[in-house]
Amino acid sequence: MTARTIVYIDGFNLYHSLDDLNEPHLKWLDLWSLSQKLLRGDQQLTAVKYFTAYATWRTGSYRRHQRYVAALEQQGVIPIIGRFKAKTVRCHAKCRQTYLTHEEKETDVNIGVHLMADVLTDRLDRALIVSADTDLNSAVLLARSEAPGKKIDLVAPPGRMGRNSAALFEVTKGRVRSSLLPRQILRADGRVIERPANYDPPIA
User: Fold this and answer.
1) What is the mean pLDDT of residues 25-34?
2) pTM attached to this predicted model
3) What pLDDT shows up at residue 102?
4) Which residue in 46, 59, 155, 164 has its CB near the most CB atoms, within 10 A?
5) Residue 132: exposed, middle, or buried by beta-carbon count in 10 A (0-12, 13-18, 19+)?
6) pLDDT digits (tens, 9 = 90+) for 79-135
7) DSSP readout, 20-77?
8) Which residues pair with 99 in a beta bridge?
9) Side-chain-facing half-sphere of 8: CA atoms under 13 Å
């Protein structure tokens, strides 16, 4: 039998690993296509869930992020949007000044909740969680214990294998490069989603 497989993407964990590659065009990544490349021949991709949050105070990146999510939806990816929480932090240096920063909230919890719900309602036989965040290890262990017949594993983003020893394998740069979205994506309503200029590939 073909194993029904759901892939869960920790959006910012993946994004920061791509940012470290210093090739901005790789961020225009087709997560459905990439997820298919993570599967074996006896597995069938039934859903890709993308967990992220909008940095609404950064106008440029916020608009690009919205466009990216819209593009992913056209490929069949399901976005689950969390939030950022404003946080006042005091500088530990001599200045002792306070400054405002933002902390991503809900993503780890959302991944854990969706994983457990999908496992317990028998929506999957196989789960892959693309993240090197060790905070997700306990959710994976609990899901395995509650549903021992399911195969559930963590997959490290590019260059992140050493950050979580629980990861089964690492997404290779080659898989990323062969999974990019096209420059233009046609929506069902006839409108076109255009790749942001920031993500244009280098001219050969």
Assistant:
1) 98
2) 0.90
3) 46
4) 155
5) buried
6) 999 865 555 556 666 666 765 454 666 788 999 999 999 999 999 999 999 999 999
7) TTT-GGGGSB-HHHHHHHTS-TTEEEEEEEEEE---TTSHHHHHHHHHHHHHHHHTT-
8) 89
9) 29
Region at 190 (left for phi over 0; alpha for psi -120 to 50; beta for the rest): left
- CA 195, CA 36: separation in Å to the nearest integer? 22
Token pair for 99:
């400054």
Residue at 87: amino acid letter: K
Phi, psi angles (nearest 5°) of residue 180: -85, 150
Do 129 and 5 meet the contact criterion of CB atoms below 8 Å apart? Answer: no
Lookup result for tokens 């780890």: 108
| Summary mean pLDDT of the chain | 91
What is residue 92's DSSP assignment?
A: -
28 closest CA partner among 19, 36, 41, 40: 19
- Cβ-Cβ contacts under 8 Å for 30 (sequence gap 6 or more): 72, 75, 179, 180, 181
Residue with tokens 């006896």: 42
The pLDDT assigned to 10 comes to 97
